[in-house]
Amino acid sequence: VTWVSNPVGLNQTALMSSPSGAGFAGASTVSLCHADSSTCTEIPLVQPWDRGAKIVVPLSMAPLQVWIVQMAGSTITRLNDAEPWWTMCDSLGNKSPTPLTCRAGSTLRVFGRGLAFDQSGCIPFTTSGTIEATPSESIQAPSGTAFLRLGTTTGSVILLNASIASCYMAEFGLPSSMPPGVYSVELKNSLTGAEWVQSP
Asked: In what order do the strands lie in the sheet with 29-34?
C-alpha cells in the first residue's frame, strides 16, 4: 500500500491505494488489528480492484487508536500513525538560510496528517507544555498532543511536547539551551499504538 486515508475513525471508511499489479484484485477480506495485535477482526474489502480498495472500521474496534491492516498474515498498512510531510522554522526574528535551519529558542513547525488526536478524533487545536527527557524515559502521551523527537549522531535525544497541535500542523518550541548540530526529526501522536515516524 502506497497511500491510505488519514485520519480514520470508528465507522469511517479508509481508502487504500497500491501500485498496479500489487493491489487487491481477487481479494475479499483483510484483518484489522489493534496495534499490539491483541484483537483482530476480519472485515470485507469494499470495491476492491487492482490498484486499491476501501474498508470500514467497525465499531467493535473501539477505542480510537492506531490500527494495523493485514492480508495473508502480513501487515500491508497502518491507520492513524502521524504522517509528517515537511517542517519549517520560525527563528524569532532572525532569518535562517533555509526553512530547515533552526536556531535554539525558535519554533519548529511540522505539517502533515494525523498529527494530533483525542478520543473523538482529529482535533482542531490544543496547547500544552514542553518537556525534555533522556532516551530511557518513557512518554505518557496525554490526549490531543503531538510529540517530537530530535536525535543526534552521538545518540543524545531531545523530546518535545507540542505547544500547539492540530490534525495537520504542530508547533514545538526548541530549547534555548539546545546545542548546535544536525538533528533527525521524528513525530508521534498520542494514540495507543502510535510509532515514531521520521519527517522528510
From this structure: 40-44, 29-34, 67-71, 74-79
pTM value? 0.83
Burial (CB count <10 Å: 0-12, 13-18, 19+), residue 87: buried
Helix (H) or strand (E) segment spanning residue 165: strand 164-165
Q: H/E element holding 177?
A: none
110 CB neighbour count, 10 Å cutoff? 23
Residue with cell 510529540: 147
Cβ within 8 Å of residue 65, ≥6 positions away: 34, 35, 80, 191, 192, 193
- % the chain with pLDDT above 90: 53
In 3D space, the residue among 148, 160, 162, 80 whose CA is nearest the CA of residue 114 turns out to be: 80
Cell of 108: 519548529
Under the banding of pLDDT at 50, 70 and 90, the label for residue 127 is low
